[in-house]
Amino acid sequence: MSTPLESCCGNRAEQVTSQIRPRDRGPAPCLVCGASGTAVEHRTLLHMLRPDRVGRLGDREFRFCDAPGCDTVYFSVDGEVSFGTADLRERVGLKTTGDPQAPVCYCFGFTVGDLEADVRLGRTPTAVGRIREMVKARQCVCEVRNPSGRCCLGEIARIARPSNSEKG
Ligand SMILES: [Zn+2]
Asked: What are the φ and ψ backbone dihedral angles of 75, each rounded to 5 degrees?
């Protein structure tokens, strides 16, 4: 109960996961770049995909590719279907580089630029602080708003770490 809040979706994700055989929920390599893709619910895809793409889902298991250099966002474990950034209604911040308007928190609308400005201007409360508060108040719906289907706080922590921007 007293552990710090790092994600709003962990408990719910566990509930869903427990209903499905574990081997079906493990990571799978992206069909295009080979990066390890994490499990994503159909519910998330239904919200993210353009309406005319939804019919391709079938009853396949999908994974989310978070590799910034890869245009593939979702791919099926059976290797039959993949969806790129153009197949989504939502811009995927992870797949966008160098744009301060790229979204990072989809529930509350914070961008990469917001996070950078916090650091540059020393603003408080920071966007991360405000997101944590709202997550704590359970005002987020990451499983349908965030393309990854997961809470944005992990990804934000990655962006907010200054050393990361130095890497190619
Ligand atoms: Zn990929």
From this structure: -145, 150
